[in-house]
Amino acid sequence: MGDAHRIGVVGLGVISRAYLDTLAGHPDVRVTAVADLDAARSVSVAAELPGAAALTVEELLSSPDVDTVLNLTVPAAHAAIALGAVARGKHVYGEKPLAATLDDARAVLEAAAKAGVGVGCAPDTVLGTGIQTARAAVEAGAVGCPLFATAVMVTPGHERWHPQPDFYYAPGGGPLLDMGPYYLASLVHLLGPVRSVTGASSRLRSERVIGSGPRAGERIPVEVDSHVSGVLEHTSGALTTITTSFDGVATTAAPIEVHGETGTLSVPDPNCFDGEVRLFGLGGTQWRTLEPSAGYAEGARGVGLLDFIAADASRGPRASGDLALHVLETMTALLRSSAEGRRIELTTATPPPAPVPLTAAAQWRGEGRPAAC
């Protein structure tokens, strides 16, 4: 483990457990430090990780025992933590979105470029066998020339189950910014970058009622639109119609469908690593399920960080800051388009990252490998 890449984790909320389950014990990385605003939580988590120190955020960002900062804070703090890490010469990999605003996200990437350090960002679910098998099928011509796609995410609202749902309905929240990164990152893998958008949005009601936990029955204000629809024009010429909503009850629509001149591909939930990819060919009589042919098998949160660390000059990181910036610009442009009533051209055009070959869980997890000397 002497040569293992050293990780410092900032933010020890619910999602941190999934990351730590992936990283702990992996031969290529070592969690050397953890930090949280709740000092007691830091101490508790560090006790579960041999060799990890419980530090303050400032101590972790300055620690000589940290190579990459894993930023799992709330979205409003993403840019500050990332800039702090970059200023100290450390790489940073964060949860989505890259930052709460497009200007902050640009600032992070510009600072990283000047410092000569890398920036990576979730989601990494798109590197699993679900999206990657679908991508391989599209690139192999399974649907012919891709013409258009649909992307649909409909729920009645997170307040029904989340005990502290306020941030979903505050500025920076809403269905698009919350769940859009999974869908848009997938669409870039499948159809390439987006060149322009046209959006429309609405708000079902001005208040929501918390449905669980100690605040059950409390009313919270809705400060953002809770239903966002739009059309994405990809540089490839394909069009995507996207709907993200906290106002619907349910849907039978596939999370993503890609329609081409010779077939339609049904793509699984991009918030998951796997799932069935189904193809209906022109002239066929039924859907056909495709065997997994690409992606990290049995993927889990953190595989994108491992991919980021393993990147080199010949293959850049797949869950990159550049892709996260393009996704964030696409989302904020959709919201601006809705507010301003016009089509908006994007300024970023990140190409799809390298596809992921089918990689057994034992390989990306490092299972069965000899211990380091």
The main β sheet shows up as:
9 strands, mixed
Helix fraction, binned, reads 25-40%
Which CATH class of the largest domain applies here? Alpha Beta
Shape: globular
Portion in strands: 15-25%
Distance between the termini: 8 Å
Second-tier CATH architecture of the largest domain: 2-Layer Sandwich
Judged by helices, strands and strand pairing, the structural class is alpha/beta
User: What gyration radius follows from the Cα positions, in whole Å?
Assistant: 21 Å
- What are the segments in which pLDDT stays under 50 over at least 5 consecutive residues? 369-373
Residue-averaged pLDDT: 95
CATH topology of the largest domain: Dihydrodipicolinate Reductase, domain 2
For CATH, the homologous superfamily of the largest domain is named as Dihydrodipicolinate Reductase, domain 2
Read across the widest sheet, the strand sequence of neighbours is 16-15-14-13-7-12-11-8-17
Oligomerization status of the protein chains: single chain
Order of helices and strands: EHEHEHEHEHEHEHEEEEEEEEEHHEH
Number of domains: 2
The total strand number stands at 17
Number of contiguous helices: 10
Would you write up a description of this structure?
By secondary structure, the chain is an alpha/beta fold. The chain has 2 domains: 5-121, NAD(P)-binding Rossmann-like Domain (Rossmann fold, 3-Layer(aba) Sandwich); 125-294 and 325-345, 2-Layer Sandwich (Dihydrodipicolinate Reductase, domain 2). It is 29% helix and 23% strand. It is built from 10 helices and 17 strands. It has a 9-stranded mixed sheet with strand order 16-15-14-13-7-12-11-8-17. The protein has a 6-stranded parallel sheet with strand order 3-2-1-4-5-6, with helices on both faces. The chain has a two-stranded antiparallel ribbon with strand order 9-10. Helix 5 runs antiparallel to helix 9 (321-340) and helix 6 packs parallel to helix 7. The longest helix is centred in the C-terminal third of the chain and has 20 residues, at 321-340. Residues 369-373 have low confidence and may be disordered.
